[in-house]
């Protein structure tokens, strides 16, 4: 099953298509405050890269925070709109969980950190055995 992933919680906007546990295509843009301009063209590009139509998607995963409030709203609005039109499920993935998942196979504690601005951070502590 093809799943579209949307990440807009940080300054880097990203979209990807996975099939089961295999990454098929991905696109990233690192431009501040342009998620609303770049997200839909990025989704179109990543679907073209995979050669599938939106109707072939089985679901959408979208970053659920913490992160930029505006960025999260942009990603959620796009994901929910597409999911409603296509009749497919949408799932929010906690941003810190997704960051921790990137280091699968590392032994010990994992501590992803995101800038929360105003000299504060979002963080969580994971044990690789979990």
Describe this structure in words.
With 130 residues, the protein is of the alpha/beta class. It has 3 helices and 9 strands. The strands form 3 sheets. Strands 3-2-1-4-5 form a 5-stranded mixed beta sheet. α2 links the parallel β4 and β5. It folds into 2 domains: 2-93, Nucleotidyltransferase, domain 5 (2-Layer Sandwich), CATH 3.30.420.40; 95-130, no CATH class. The radius of gyration is 15 Å and the shape is globular. α1 (35-50) crosses α2.
Short description:
The chain is α/β, with parallel strands linked by helices.
Observed structural traits:
130 residues; alpha/beta; Nucleotidyltransferase, domain 5; 2 domains; two-stranded antiparallel ribbon; 3 helices; 32% helix; globular
Shape: globular
Query: How much β-strand is present in the residues?
Result: 25-35%
Q: State the low-pLDDT regions, or none.
A: none
Write the H/E string, N to C: EEEHEHEHEEEE
Mean pLDDT: 94
Count of alpha/pi helices: 3
The largest sheet has its strands arranged as 3-2-1-4-5
The CATH class of the largest domain, by name, is Alpha Beta
First CA to last CA: what distance? 26 Å
Share in helix: 25-40%
Radius of gyration: 15 Å
Q: How would you sum up the major sheet? A: 5 strands, mixed
**Global structural class:** alpha/beta
What's the β-strand tally? 9
CATH 2nd-level architecture of the largest domain: 2-Layer Sandwich
Q: What would CATH call the homologous superfamily of the largest domain?
A: ATPase, nucleotide binding domain
At CATH level 3, the topology of the largest domain is Nucleotidyltransferase, domain 5
Our count of domains comes out at 2
């Amino acid at each position: 099953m093809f799943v579209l992933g949307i990440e807009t919680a940080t300054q880097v906007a990203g979209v990807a298509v996975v099939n089961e546990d295999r990454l098929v295509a991905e696109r990233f843009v690192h431009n501040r405050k342009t998620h609303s301009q770049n997200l839909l063209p990025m989704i179109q590009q990543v679907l073209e890269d995979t050669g599938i139509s939106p109707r072939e998607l089985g679901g959408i995963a979208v970053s659920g925070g913490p992160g930029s409030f505006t960025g999260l709203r942009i990603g959620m609005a796009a994901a929910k709109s597409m999911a409603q039109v296509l009749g497919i499920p949408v799932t929010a993935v906690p941003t810190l969980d997704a960051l921790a998942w990137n280091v699968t196979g590392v032994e010990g504690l994992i501590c992803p950190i995101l800038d929360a601005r105003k000299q504060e951070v979002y963080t969580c502590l994971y044990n690789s055995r979990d």
